[in-house]
Amino acid sequence: xxxxxxxxxxxxxxxxxxxxxxxxxxxxxxxxxxxxxxxxxxxxxxxxxxxxxxxxxxxxxxxxxxxxxxxxxxxxxxxxxxxxxxxxxxxxxxxxxxxxxxxxxxxxxxxxxxxxxxxxxxxxxxxxxxxxxxxxxxxxxxxxxxxxxxxxxxxxxxxxxxxxxxxxxxxxxxxxxxxxxxxxxxxxxxxxxxxxxxxxxxxxxxxxxxxxxxxxxxxxxxxxxxxxxxxxxxxxxxxxxxxxxxxxxxxxxxxxxxxxxxxxxxxxxxxxxxxxxxxxxxxxxxxxxxxxxxxxxxxxxxxxxxxxxxxxxxxxxxxxxxxxxxxxxxxxxxxxxxxxxxxxxxxxxxxxxxxxxxxxxxxxxxxxxxxxxxxxxxxxxxxxxxxxxxxxxxx
Length: 395
Known about the structure:
The chain is mainly alpha-helical. Helix content is 67%, strand content 4%.
């Protein structure tokens, strides 16, 4: 049930406050709203049909596509076997299409994050009664009745005091009515209930911004990154805020071009991006680096499998990058071609500055690294702000 609940509430959670996406035009907007309302009611097929109508009415809007991706992800969470795999693949494909139209579309970003991460975030699963009240509130909210939805959200919070999302949505009801202090109160309470609720911190930042509390808003965004570093909408807001005061940030935009899978025969297989096939062209060094990265991962995981030892994902990630960087250093030292991808160059820069672990944690975070990340935060209480101030990098 946890995955189903997370998927069906995701739309409201990421779109509560001002976000950067391509909204549908006047002709498509009512259809988009109908789709969202149908989704809140659990009518997935009807919701997709409405989103498709909205996409047809406004082919340049990202939001109808991100809405479809979210519905498909919710459907996948209820499916089994090949159907589950197919729906997840479709969801990822549509989410990527949405991002070609609106690169900062928060719903598409979150759908991809959930699909591609290796573990769910450690957030509280609500009781069935609290969940039911929340869903009833969602239907009212999507029908344009935030005050009535608030009653249901508050009921949900009473039924399960550990359910921080109930407070987030209660705050959203006030936010929709432009009642910023009341919204702030509920968003802040959500962060107190679950400090790892990154969305609660992001929405708190929105409420603070509308009240002109810029410093507090930025601090809330840093807390949101500390909660869940791979929530791109939080980084988007931080980058926008810093750009306004003359401190722009650079996106790493690391596109992973090698992956490792365990096949049906129990063997690890490397999938290298097709752009590196043929061993020719200007990206030879980049391909060599990705191949070295994946080869180290295969060797490490194969050894763990043989020794019947559990993988330590973050340790493998760091060691894989170090091995890949060493290969490129040796190639360049021998007169060979250097890497050219700006993202790989930034990874090397961080490694030379002894910031590889920190950079990976913040810019390439996976939930399976939670233990190492929490230990790093404890040892470096101001580490995230210091990293951003020094390198001005974001995912």
